[in-house]
# Entry
Amino acid sequence: MAVISGAWAANVIWSLRAGPRRFNELRTDIPPISAKVLSTRLSELEQRGVLLRNVQPTSPPSVEYSLTELGGELVPALEAIVKVGHRLKSLGHG
# Structure
């Protein structure tokens, strides 16, 4: 739980579940997040082994973020949380 406990960490993992994303794509996926907070979360998740930061050899260089194997293992847990949230909402509890 500590891995996904930071604000927006679960949102970042959720956005990366479909494949690699660049910084601005993640900002679009998570509109309320500031650039500073997103940068901090990406660094923390990289340090924890949840995602990879891959610098593309383009001109200018671009950076893509993707889930590691460990990060991918978190996706089913997040899917379960989302599913329960939808059930609670449909029952009028959310």
